[in-house]
């Protein structure tokens, strides 16, 4: 569902008629939200999976090489590409 389909685009354009200001602002907010979500979900998923794997003696400790990188990357990947937000606003 998009803003156009739900009719919320009218609210956005009434609040901020200058589209060149509204769309980048939405992109910034969207990127911040998904970065925060990824920052919480990534370590939580790692800890849950390690609890399961540790029961089978297959767990990987946080100090293992590559674990920090694996926990850092998902929040970075969840940020939307700017062109995906700006392109959908046309």
Explain the overall architecture.
The chain is mainly alpha-helical and 90 residues long. The protein has one domain (18-88). Helices cover 73% and strands 0% of the residues. The protein contains 5 helices and no strands. Helix 3 runs antiparallel to helix 4. The longest helix is centred in the middle third of the chain and has 36 residues, at 19-54. The two termini are 15 Å apart. 0% of the residues are buried. The mean pLDDT is 77.
Which descriptors apply to this entry?
elongated; mainly alpha; 5 helices; single chain; 90 residues
The major beta sheet can be summarized as: none
- Tell me the helix content: over 70%
Query: What is the C-alpha radius of gyration, as a whole number of Å?
Result: 19 Å
Number of domains: 1
In round numbers, the mean pLDDT is: 77
Overall 3D form = elongated
Weakly predicted, low-confidence segments: none
Percentage of β-strand residues: under 5%
Number of strands: 0
Distance between the termini: 15 Å
Give the helix tally: 5
SSE series = HHHHH
| Global structural class | mainly alpha
